[in-house]
Structure formats: structure tokens, C-alpha cells
TrEMBL record:
It comes from the Eukaryota. This is F-box domain-containing protein. It comes from Rotaria magnacalcarata.
Length: 175
């Protein structure tokens, strides 16, 4: 069998269906978006942008390039997809950043966001018990206040929390 070196197939040579299958395999999705958006290939960008209804910004693997990836996300990607996001999954530590970004760049609201999922961590690494964000503690109180008092929450119809997590009264600040 003869191997032809000039017959290399590049990603852009593939049909859209195959490219979409490949894109669906990339985890975390924010990594895909940061790699495809603003690289100058309109076809790949459009395929990626068409998939931006559900965004998972959680990056929980050890020694992840979290800071540089999120910086690129906020500077090159977020403004392109902000009106498309219907479902958003965040780590709790990302809430102040996303709320701040949305307040500065989108009048405080993601216009089509209806579902928010907050990932906190299944168990404390010290005790093995489920996390509880207690509003009486300063860290939990700051994050809860950031979310509760933000216009970011206006359009949310569905709020989901990671399993085994207790988060007191986040949607209705009066209840």
C-alpha cells in the first residue's frame, strides 16, 4: 500500500457534519470557543457560534490554564455570543467575574439566559462533607449577594445546583 504525503486532509476540508461531531467531543467547551473564535476562519467560527446556546465555563482539572483561557474568553469570545447564551454552567468562583462582565458589556443581563447551573464542588477536600454556603460567612455571603442583587438573575427561569450542595435562598432575596 502506498502512502501519499500530499493527500493530507485538513479540518477545513471536512464536511460541516464531521466538524460538528468533532466540536461536540471537545471538553471543556470554552476551550473550543477560545480556539476557534477570532482565528480568521469564518466557516469554523460560524459553526462554533451556532453551538453557543449552552455554555459550560467549568474548568476543574488540575493545573488548568484557567486564567489565560478565561481572559481570552472575555476578550475575544463573550461579546460574540452574549446574545445567544440560553444556558450557562459556572463554578461558583466565576460568578463575580461573569456578573461584572455582563454589567459592563451587556447592561447587566444576558438577554436569552433562562438556565443557570452553579458548580460548587461535591465535597470539602478537608472533611469529605458536602459544601454549604452559609450566608453568615463572609465568602459565601459575598458570592450570594453578588448573584442575588445582580440584574444578571432577572431572566433566569431555572437555577440548578451541583448535587449534594446547599445554597440558601438565592433566587428570592426576600423569602
Amino acid at each position: 500500500m502506498t502512502c501519499l504525503l500530499n493527500d493530507n486532509v485538513q479540518l477545513v476540508d471536512l464536511p460541516d457534519e464531521l466538524i460538528l461531531m468533532i466540536m461536540n467531543k471537545v471538553k471543556p467547551k470554552v476551550s473550543l470557543l477560545c480556539s476557534i473564535i477570532a482565528i480568521g476562519n469564518n466557516r469554523l467560527e460560524q459553526l462554533a457560534l451556532d453551538k453557543c446556546h449552552s455554555i459550560d465555563l467549568t474548568i476543574d482539572y488540575f493545573q488548568s490554564p484557567y486564567e489565560s483561557l478565561m481572559t481570552r474568553f472575555y476578550t475575544h469570545v463573550a461579546y460574540r455570543i452574549i446574545d445567544n447564551i440560553q444556558s450557562l454552567t459556572l463554578n461558583i468562583r466565576q460568578i463575580p467575574d461573569i456578573v461584572s462582565y455582563v454589567e459592563k458589556n451587556s447592561n447587566g443581563i444576558l438577554p436569552n439566559l433562562i438556565h443557570l447551573k452553579i458548580m460548587i464542588g461535591r465535597q470539602s477536600h478537608r472533611t469529605g462533607t458536602p459544601y454549604t454556603l452559609d450566608a453568615s460567612r463572609s465568602g459565601g455571603n459575598r458570592i450570594i449577594s453578588t448573584v442575588r442583587c445582580s440584574t444578571f438573575m432577572r431572566s433566569i427561569v431555572s437555577l440548578e445546583l451541583e448535587n449534594d450542595c446547599i445554597l440558601p435562598n438565592i433566587i428570592n432575596p426576600d423569602g
